[in-house]
Amino acid sequence: MKIVGIPFLLLLLFTSYGCQSKDKSKNQELVQQEHLEVPKKESLTASQLQEYETAYFASGCFWCVEAIFESVKGVKEVYSGYSGGTEKNPTYEQVSYGRTTHAEAVEVYYDPKVVSFTQLVQVFFGSHDPTTLNRQGPDRGPQYRSIAFYKNEDEKKIITNYMVKLKEEMVYDRPIVTEVKKFDTFYMAEEYHQDYERNNPNNSYIRNVSIPRLNRFKANFQSYLKEDTH
């Protein structure tokens, strides 16, 4: 497995597209999508989801992160939302403009018989730059910070041990600034954010930031991908 390092971010660092503006353009983008037919995704019921384990990560714009984890075999569902802060029931406008202590995050439902928590941690670190403080690509602010959440001591150990390995192998030429944080609460984002990359492929942010990030991940993690996402 090849770990994605700093070169992966060069394209993103110099693009002019940012996450903060995406809500303002929502209505315009929806109009552009009116005549675009996107195959409907089959969603799992609440009872079906209970059969799987959950993991939580934050690594920049949740549109991008959701699409990356959705492409991983063994992952059954991914939701975009907010976590890592103290405010209750935050909204997108509050979080994306840095008015809360939350970060844009994802909730990952996965089958541990197919993909392990360790592998999800590898996906997390391999699909973003964990050395940029309060920034991911063109998106700046603590709402885009890197966080690996753990629900128990075993998960915490997996995360910290992997970070030590990355440091020992000198994968990055700068210190990792990822927060390792005890999971508390995940707040689901507004409905139009769910599966946003899939449903809005012509959105300018999706075209110029999210899809290139996903494609770079796919190129480096081919053995982790679902058959229909190669």
TrEMBL record:
Keywords: Oxidoreductase, Signal. It holds the Pfam family PMSR. It catalyses: L-methionyl-[protein] + [thioredoxin]-disulfide + H2O = L-methionyl-(S)-S-oxide-[protein] + [thioredoxin]-dithiol; [thioredoxin]-disulfide + L-methionine + H2O = L-methionine (S)-S-oxide + [thioredoxin]-dithiol. One of its GO terms (molecular function) is peptide-methionine (S)-S-oxide reductase activity. Residues 54-205 form the Peptide methionine sulphoxide reductase MsrA domain. It is an enzyme of class 1 (oxidoreductase). Its EC number is 1.8.4.11. The active site is at C61. InterPro entries: Met_Sox_Rdtase_MsrA_dom, Met_Sox_Rdtase_MsrA_sf. Residues 1-21 form the signal peptide. NCBIfam families: msrA. Has an important function as a repair enzyme for proteins that have been inactivated by oxidation. Catalyzes the reversible oxidation-reduction of methionine sulfoxide in proteins to methionine. PANTHER family: PEPTIDE METHIONINE SULFOXIDE REDUCTASE (PTHR43774), PEPTIDE METHIONINE SULFOXIDE REDUCTASE MSRA 2 (PTHR43774:SF1). Belongs to the MsrA Met sulfoxide reductase family. This is Peptide methionine sulfoxide reductase MsrA. It comes from Flagellimonas marina.
